[in-house]
Amino acid sequence: MAKKVETLLRQWDGETVITRFDHATGAWIFMAIHSTRPGPPVSGGTRMKVYPDAEAGLQDALKLSTAMTMKLALAGIAHGGGKTVIALPPDFDPAQRPTLLRTYGLLLKQLGGLFLTGPDVGTSPEDMNIIAETGYPYVFSRTPEVGGAGDSGPGTAVGVLAGIRATCEQLFGCDCLADRRILVQGTGSVGSALIDMLCQAGAEVLFSEVDERAIRRWRDERGLPFIPANQVYNTPCDIFSPCALGGILNPQTISRLQCRAVVGSANNQLTSPTEAQQLQEKGILYAPDIAVNIGGLMSIIGMEAEGWSRAEAFERVSRTVDCTLRQVYALAAAEGLDTHTAALRLADHRLMQARSKNGGALFMDWR
Ligand code: PHE
To answer: ∠67-70-74 over CA atoms, to 5°?
Structure first.
């Protein structure tokens, strides 16, 4: 383990990792602080799930924290990026969950506002309530009953919808979704909100899911075509929208894809940056995840820290994703870059602007 951890940390371009082993449960807490500029504070979700081993959890935290810095820059938020992974052991006892969350909350409190968190894969607004019992006020997205802005899924979906429209405009010269065939992978809090919006806009929606209950809901109750996991990559569609876990775009899956574009909310969709070129060579337009999936953090931070109404937050998310993706596509075309590289360039540019002339405002105006 020691050697692997050393390699991981040497290869990472971030600042600090705060590590805690919870003896009571056997869980590891890895809080990766990628960048304290333009913050502090540093913002990032808390991901909680079983990993094959502790290193895999650490590796995920590092990768996700780097993406957070870029996402916050693209969202125009003057916070640094970070991420916490709580890596659960395979035999984790769910009854221990609240205690573990309170232990984590206490750590946030001890850090005194260096790190602000919100939900991510495996955590919910109800979990944020529990974390806030010990970690208040450093917790976003608590439930509305206790004064939080609630689930970040709908806000993320609003951004994905704007990303799908901007991508259709780029591909087909029209952002209308009527009869566009869109395959949504994952029907969690983002995927399900997105499916509703797409159906309302008249799109032909297909879905893929592994959870039996969710499959029954969307297939049997809502009548949507279900695509089994082993067919998700070679099902013909206009837009493939990965809204589950990352790491799904690799040479094998890309060679099977039969879509015109990939536009989804999953964090770190590419297994490595070179896959962006492979997609491009195949004639598939890739809407970079760091530009598409900012809607959750942007709407929640806007509502909770700046007092935006939900309508205003969603409107700002739509505009930001639309404008950012257009800039990404234009930059990629002008400089002959793949879209992932173009999005990173744009994020770097906005970070530099934020550092030099933000003047203390939380939300930057980078246009
Ligand atoms: N899961 C969110 C993301 O990856 C993190 C987040 C949600 C942060 C809500 C703050 C508030 O973007």
So the answer is: 135
